[in-house]
Design goal:
The structure holds two protein chains of two kinds.
Chain A: H1 16-28, E1 36-43, H2 47-63, H3 69-82, E2 84-86, E3 89-93, H4 97-120, H5 125-149, E4 151-153, E5 156-160, H6 164-180, H7 186-198, E6 201-203, E7 206-210, H8 214-252, H9 256-298, E8 300-302, E9 305-309, H10 313-329, H11 335-348, E10 350-355, H12 360-365, H13 373-379
Antiparallel strand pairs in A: 1-2, 1-10, 2-3, 3-4, 4-5, 5-6, 6-7, 7-8, 8-9, 9-10
Helix pairs in contact in A: 2-3, 2-11, 3-4, 5-6, 6-7, 7-8, 8-9, 9-10, 10-11
Chain B: E1 2-9, E2 16-23, E3 29-33, E4 36-40, E5 45-47, E6 56-60, E7 65-68, H1 71-79, H2 85-94, H3 97-129, H4 132-148, E8 153-154, H5 158-175, E9 186-191, E10 199-201, E11 206-210, H6 211-216, H7 220-235, H8 238-256, H9 262-297, H10 303-313, H11 331-344
Parallel strand pairs in B: 9-11
Antiparallel strand pairs in B: 1-2, 1-7, 2-3, 3-4, 5-6, 6-7, 8-9, 10-11
Helix pairs in contact in B: 3-8, 5-7, 7-9, 7-10, 8-9, 9-11, 10-11
The chains are: A alpha+beta, B alpha+beta.
């Protein structure tokens, strides 16, 4: 099947960085003599169509006090997967709502336990938190397996082959080190987490390869630490300024009109500060996520196939800011619009770099799988908590 | 016989083929691909529920998957089937704008009704079912917590102990036989310069009063009025009810806004606080009226309640624009509510 990727004629125009990656790719795997060409992902989800699905599922969840959640979750995920296409084939979300229900009930019981135990004595929540911390790596391991196994492309399932012991090393042993290193280890820890996920994924029988460098993670964290500090100082200065103006004017004027005007001014000032804090959070969380995601894609491979994500920092941050403010100001009504827009941007900037620009035989032969039937049994043992 | 064409994927391989399917009257599928032909009986396949305009998918028991954009063929096939009716109904709703708009109204209406009626009734029911031992340990732990924060100091003034105990006993006496025997009434007196003049009730029946409050009262009747207000909080279990209701608000908010990120959650904190304050203000008015009625009935009169409210209010002015976030109604509202008692008679 031919790619209908719009950029394929204008040839790959990768930045210097990923150019270098391509060279290493071809030297490491000399088998693929053919140059790599990008094959784009497409997303065909539509705002109007998804809005209707979203609101009906929201209504069903609200009237069932949340118990419809697994069914709503499956429909939403299926919608996004079925509308994600690569090379003319769509993705599949295979999870059954009943298997999600198990994880959902575990979370509910745990939350209820936490709440009730806290009523007796606030100290009682610590054992509950401890149990949660000990169980967390196991839960993450189970959820990663569940998600991978329930994702398929061309009738071939993904698989997560990471070990449970590695999950405990990644999510518990490293976590313990964080306070002792004053948090300096966090970027490296984040990389370890990504290694655990991206490096243990398989498509059918073909394992993905993931070779990130810690220095890159530190570079992005440092950049965002600087941006974060800058925003923090702006907010502090604004707070002090508003407080000073308010305090001074309170002393200076006594008339009631002035007081009302001042009160209104104060509210507007606070709303602005509130908005800036939200914006800062969006910039920090999403900007950092995006840069690291772009980088991760550049060091990820599936056999001879490589990946490239071409998201732009400013574009992505503006998109996220637009999404959050539009969602908040319409009291959530634009959430479906925001989700579709986000998925479209992420996927349409994501490329599979295929030898000769063809997924063809190569790709197919490499991904024979032992048959979907035997896998269903182990599906029962895994669950997802949907967080 | 219903026929359609699509793409077939064999089990465990990413190869795809053009395929033809034929749905027979006995509910079986006959699939033809690459000259191969196979028949699947009704127990050997599963049709994925329709979802928007995305391709229809059938999975066969031998791992074969077939996908087709032929929605018309599938709606004909599904007409003959019993199973999957629920998701056909869900899909019917999901593809209609009037239903979508109706759902918006439905969500808003349900949330309002739930918060206004459902949750309070439920919370009231649960609050009275809670065993007294749990109330006791909750009350003790919240007193301990205040103590740990250094808010409470022992009170050594005999005068204050005598005056407040007297007033408390009188308040209990005035309520007469109406008291629920389950609650264990007890007065605790503390010196609390950081809290100031205040009195509050804990779910078990423990009423806490500060020295500063006793000093503020001009007459014994004013103290009795406030104790009646606190007894009302215990009798009506306002403390537990608001705890349960707040948990309910949190639950419904996380369902309704579950799609927002943690930042969206931050934006949702203001409406959540507003709803919780609304509950709390309702309870305060209820307690004022409970006390007011008893004061009127025994001849002391609801005026003393108003007097002490005005006195208490001198220290904490209302902030007009933030009133909707306050745990207590503003002074005027409380006084008006007490005045309305007189016109009741």
């Amino acid at each position: 099947m031919e790619t209908n990727e719009p950029n394929s004629e204008s040839a790959p125009e990768p930045n210097e960085h990923s150019n270098a990656e391509h060279e290493t790719a071809s030297t490491v795997t000399p088998a693929s003599a053919e140059p790599l060409h990008p094959v784009g992902f497409q997303f065909t989800g539509q705002t109007g169509e998804f809005f209707k699905i979203w609101i009906v599922n929201l209504l069903l969840q609200v009237v069932t006090l949340g118990f419809y959640w697994p069914w709503a979750m499956v429909r939403t995920k299926r919608y996004f997967y079925a509308n994600t296409h690569l090379d003319g084939h769509s993705f599949d979300y295979l999870a059954k709502p009943k298997s999600l229900l198990i994880g959902y009930l575990i979370v509910l019981c745990f939350a209820a336990l936490y709440a009730v135990v806290g009523l007796f004595n606030p100290l009682f929540v610590f054992p509950v938190i401890l149990v949660y911390l000990v169980a967390a790596p196991w839960i993450i391991y189970k959820a990663l397996r569940f998600r991978a196994r329930n994702t398929a492309y061309r009738n071939v399932r993904f698989k997560f082959s990471g070990l449970l012991s590695d999950s405990y090393i990644t999510y518990m042993a490293w976590a313990v080190l964080v306070p002792f290193t004053f948090g300096l280890i966090i970027p490296y820890w984040k990389m370890k987490q990504h290694e655990y996920f991206f490096g243990n994924l398989q498509f059918g029988k073909t394992p993905f390869g993931f070779k990130p460098k810690g220095a890159e993670y530190y570079k992005y964290y440092l950049l965002f630490f600087a941006i974060g500090m800058a925003i923090y100082f702006v907010v502090i200065i604004l707070f002090v300024a508003i407080g000073a103006v308010f305090g001074y004017s309170m002393d200076a004027m006594g008339s009631e009109e002035m007081e009302t005007a001042l009160t209104i001014g104060m509210i507007i000032g606070l709303v602005i500060v509130y908005a800036i804090i939200i914006a800062a959070g969006v910039i920090f969380q999403n900007g950092l996520w995006m840069l690291i995601f772009n980088y991760n894609m550049s060091v990820w491979n599936l056999g001879d196939f490589r990946f490239e994500s071409k998201m732009k920092l400013v574009e992505y941050i503006l998109l996220c800011l637009g999404n959050i403010f539009a969602s908040v100001f319409t009291l959530g009504l634009l959430i479906p619009w925001a989700k579709i827009r986000l998925a479209k941007y992420k996927l349409e900037n994501l490329y599979l770099l295929a030898p000769g620009g063809q997924l063809g035989e190569h790709f197919e032969a490499a991904n024979e799988e032992e048959g979907a039937l035997g896998e269903a049994a182990s599906d029962f043992m895994d669950f997802d908590i949907g967080l | 016989m219903i026929e359609f064409e699509g793409i077939l994927y064999r089990s465990g391989s990413s190869h795809s083929f053009e395929a033809k399917a034929c749905f027979g009257q006995d509910g079986s599928f006959s699939i033809e691909a690459e000259g191969d032909r196979k028949v699947y009986s009704p127990t050997e396949y599963e049709i994925e529920p329709k979802l928007g305009s995305s391709n229809r998918v059938i999975r066969f028991s031998d791992g074969v998957r077939m996908e087709t954009p032929d929605h018309a063929a599938f709606s004909k096939i599904e007409e003959t089937m019993q199973s999957g009716a629920f998701f056909r109904f869900v899909d019917w709703m999901e593809t209609r704008w009037p239903i979508a708009l109706g759902s918006i109204v439905g969500v808003i209406l349900f949330v309002i009704l739930f918060l206004e009626y459902g949750m309070p009734v439920l919370a009231k029911y649960i609050a009275y079912e809670v065993p007294q031992s749990l109330r006791q340990s909750m009350s003790n732990s919240s007193l301990d917590a205040m103590d740990n924060y250094g808010l409470l100091e022992e009170s050594y003034s005999m005068r204050i102990h005598q005056a407040s105990t007297e007033a408390f006993d009188r308040a209990l006496e005035l309520t007469g036989d109406n008291l629920n025997p389950e609650f264990k009434y007890e007065l605790r007196i503390f010196k609390a310069p950081k809290i100031g003049p205040n009195a509050f009730a804990l779910p078990s029946g423990t009423v806490v009063v500060t020295e500063e409050f006793v000093d503020l009262c001009e007459t014994n009747e004013q103290m009795v009025a406030v104790f009646l207000h606190e007894i009302a909080h215990v009798e009506l279990q306002h403390g537990l009810r608001s705890l349960i209701q707040d948990a309910g608000v949190f639950l419904i908010m996380s369902i309704a806004l579950g799609d927002l990120s943690s930042l969206g959650g931050m934006a949702a904190s203001l409406p959540t606080l507003a709803i919780e304050s609304r509950y709390s203000q309702g309870f305060e008015t209820e307690a004022d009226l409970y006390a007011g009625r008893i004061l009127e009935a025994c001849g002391i009169g609801a005026e003393v309640m108003k007097d002490i409210l005005i006195l208490l209010h001198k220290d904490v002015p209302d902030i007009d624009f933030a009133q909707f976030l306050s745990s207590h109604p503003d002074l005027e509202e409380r006084l008006d509510a007490l005045d309305s008692l007189k016109s009741e008679d």
